[in-house]
Amino acid sequence: MESGFLWVGLTVLLGGFVAFCGLLKNVNAWLYESRLGEKRFNLPPGDLGWPLIGNMWTFLRAFKSKDPDSFFASYFNRFSRTPGVYKAYMFGSPCIMVTAPEPAKQVLMDDEHFGAGWPKATLELIGKKSFIGISDIEHKRLRKLTAAPVNGHEALSVYMKYIEETAVSSLEKWSRMGEVEFLTEIRRFTFKIIMYIFLGTESEQVMAALEKEYTTLNYGIRAMAINIPGFAYHRALKARKNLVAAFQSVVNERRKSQAGDIASPAKRRDMMDALLEIKDDKGKNLSDEEIIDVLLMYLNAGHESSGHITMWATVFLQQHPEIFKKAKAEQEEVVKNRPPEQKGLTLGEIRQMVYLSKVVDETLRIINISLMVFREARKDLNLSGYLVPKGWKVLVWFRTVNLDPEIYPNPKEFNPSRWDDYIPKPGTFLPFGAGSRLCPGNDLAKLEITIFLHHFLLNYQLEQLNPGSSLNYLPHTRPVDKCRARIRKLSSSAM
């Protein structure tokens, strides 16, 4: 008898728990879908997950496992791959996730209907006056003012010599060090370049301090926005505060110098000088906040993305001897055809590196240094036959597009030859985004990577000490051991 009552009690408790979970599971739907009325039936497939956390737990669990693609595999298995749009609750907001080329192209190219939509937490870390936080009009103005000093032909020509000298000296140094954390050294290499271009400094002490703060900042960008001691986002906010203070000090010193003295003609101008002096069509200078947020953004993207891609391109080349051999032969041909009096690379020679360009593009496609980009619907919209409600975030996932097996057979196979006679259709290759908000430093990043690989291929080999190292996928794909390796020198420099 008592046993029977016990089973009844357990059954009631279990039923109540299941009912409670069912209620919780529907809270977000009630909060965000019910207010749409009949229009909610036109939302794409998917679900809004649990209250407050939404689908973030599933996302973080997948990207902290050995199979990050399991996150979207669950959507494809439940709702099919065909629509390419799904409803979810991510980064504190209801959203539409875009995983296919056509809707991705529509979102990225249509500035009239899709505005910037980065989460508040990301804006707090990168800066409300950076490219990701400002309005379309401000973005157009700021991009126009800063494009030439960063990506212009003249600017790239000026940067080339320093990039090449740094690549040559870094490779030589690493070859004498024995074991190195290759990723750590590559990130220092790219950070040294971006610091020189923007702030004109080569101080090892200053660079080490700032690079440490940037590392902390990046771990917080993809974390949940929990501003409590011990959490990544809290540490990232402190890192931003330290970076802003450092840059404000530099801005103050430069402004004081400009006001009280005429710079020496021999002084090398850097991007800070350009940012302080540029004016828009109405003669308006950038504010301190704009300058600092632009610096913070460029210095972050300028070493994180190019550093990780350079490491992976080097690793992929070394893992594929035939590809290495073909890329090396191309670089030897470039040097062979160089006039005897020429010292160092030229932009013309960079353009001749057709196969190496495919190596870089293939690395960008596989590694996906940016997982996604955030937009926001400015009014109710139709996307692939489904409703995108006004005010909802729209997340374009670069990873699913760049690794789509219907576009790229065997998508995780490193195969630069897949680019032979192949021009990707709009929306099918998104290493730097697309549209008016395309990554502003993409040409500089590719230049750095190409120059480094040129000298690596000619004179060095990489010996990974733990080629089977497991990977971390947040904030960027990287080996857990940071690619511990030896850099072996094969011949003298080709400079």
Automatic annotation (TrEMBL):
GO terms of biological process kind: brassinosteroid biosynthetic process; brassinosteroid homeostasis; gibberellin biosynthetic process; sterol metabolic process
Recorded topology in the membrane: Single-pass membrane protein
Residues where heme binds: C439
Record has Metal-binding as a keyword: yes
GO cellular component: endoplasmic reticulum; membrane
Keywords in alphabetical order: Heme, Iron, Membrane, Metal-binding, Monooxygenase, Oxidoreductase, Transmembrane, Transmembrane helix
Cofactor(s), names only, from the UniProt record: heme
Gene3D superfamilies: Cytochrome P450
Location of this chain's protein in the cell: Membrane
SUPFAM superfamilies cross-referenced by the UniProt entry: Cytochrome P450 (SSF48264)
UniProt pathway: Plant hormone biosynthesis; gibberellin biosynthesis; Hormone biosynthesis
Family: Belongs to the cytochrome P450 family.
UniProt protein name: Ent-kaurenoic acid oxidase
Originating species: Protea cynaroides
